[in-house]
Amino acid sequence: TQALLQRVRAHEGLGAFLAVDEAASLAQARQADERRARGEHTPLLGVPIAHKDVFVTRDFPTTAGSRMLAGYRSPFDATVVARLGGGADGHPGAGAVTLGKLNCDEFAMGSGNDNSAFGPARNPWDPARVPGGSSGGSAAAVAARLVPGATGTDTGGSIRQPAAFCGVTGIKPTYGRCSRYGMVAYASSLDQAGPIARSALDCALLLSAMAGPDPDRDSTSLDRPAEDYTRGLDEPLPGASAGRPLQGLRIGLPTEFFGAGCSADVQAAVRAALAEFERLGATLVDVSLPRTELAIPAYYIIAPAEASSNLGRYDGVRYGHRAAEYTDLLDMYRRSRSEGFGAEVQRRILIGTYVLSHGYYDAYYLKAQQIRRLIAEDFLRAFEQCDLIAGPVAPTVAWAIGDKADDPLSAYLADIYTLPASLAGLPGMSVPAGFGAGGLPVGLQLIGPHLAESRLLHAAHQFQ
Ligand code: GLN
């Protein structure tokens, strides 16, 4: 803990951390030492990790990257934080030590970490470039070796895309696999927590502690016991040999993921990774996800709609920023929210309120929900022909900080390959696949059927 705290200080220029508190981290480390002295030897005990700043924590402030929550401190830990750390409610906790809170786009809205109210996080491979978003601080911290693992959240790609841009591994589990209790809400029907780490094995260790039902606190958490995702990672598939451990695995390649929209350097790195999967025994088959393009308009209606409702709670009354001067109650709401929310958040509240309003609900929100169903059906059909789906995570490598700042639409379009799995609630993973333009990392995306996390992690681990 001390060594990494020193490393975090030495790399402050990366902008990966929003909060550190040496005394709080060392107190947690001492507790882990005591558990070890009592004979406990769980794998994460005493391991320093850090949390995306959308997970509420008792020992550190939580801002969600927003001025609205500057200085806010939660009276409790998010379920995921408690399960990875000191535990709560009869759950022992894995004993990991929190090193601090990680930068992110404001309320997890963004793809470059450039929507953070507290300044950008930078890509360790090239500090002039974005680390991806919205979990940019998490991916940058892991890539720069400030922490061996971190939490992230993924609503439309925010674990997979920053992991790809920073050359690290990340997994977004099936919707509902991790509790959302204590996660600052963006779009509740899509938000999902997951780990970012150096390898599939490390992701498996972290996810084993994070996942599992939380029936009293998150009614959408799945009623399925926690599992040990590290089990069998080193074994060949049933019936396969050690030399070709993935024999029998059918990997579907959606034609829509390999079209003109994907840059040539990314395609080349992804194809090379897929050739390696073939050498490991997997078979590549062509599949189709015909509604891929519709994922963008559907997501950018559904997510802002839910966000506009979730963010209604920031009224300057109960918690969060309150304007210093105002004339009456309405003026207080208006000023507090105008001062507290950044431009992208305000844009999405406006879009969301519009698509939910009387007369437009049927034309936009309802249609988007219908498209969402069709996209889920596309996957069901594709999974009749394959066990996993593979493709790029993003159409390009990391772009320069500021490049898409004045053009939100171009950032939305870059989410094309991550949004379909999000809308369908499916688990998705980003695995380092090699390098593209400028020597920057490229991620291979693996998508599985519902609850196929262990299948994804196994394939990724064998590949790594
Ligand atoms: N880039 C997407 C957005 O801006 C996804 C963000 C996320 O997954 N939190 O909404």
From TrEMBL:
Its EC number is 6.3.5.7. Residues 214-234 have a biased composition (Basic and acidic residues). It comes from the Bacteria. Keywords: ATP-binding, Ligase, Nucleotide-binding, Protein biosynthesis, Transferase. PROSITE patterns: AMIDASES. InterPro entries: Amidase (IPR000120), Amidase_CS (IPR020556), Amidase_dom (IPR023631), AS_sf (IPR036928), GatA (IPR004412). It holds the Pfam family Amidase. PANTHER family: GLUTAMYL-TRNA(GLN) AMIDOTRANSFERASE SUBUNIT A (PTHR11895:SF151), TRANSAMIDASE (PTHR11895). This is Glutamyl-tRNA(Gln) amidotransferase subunit A. It comes from Tepidimonas fonticaldi.
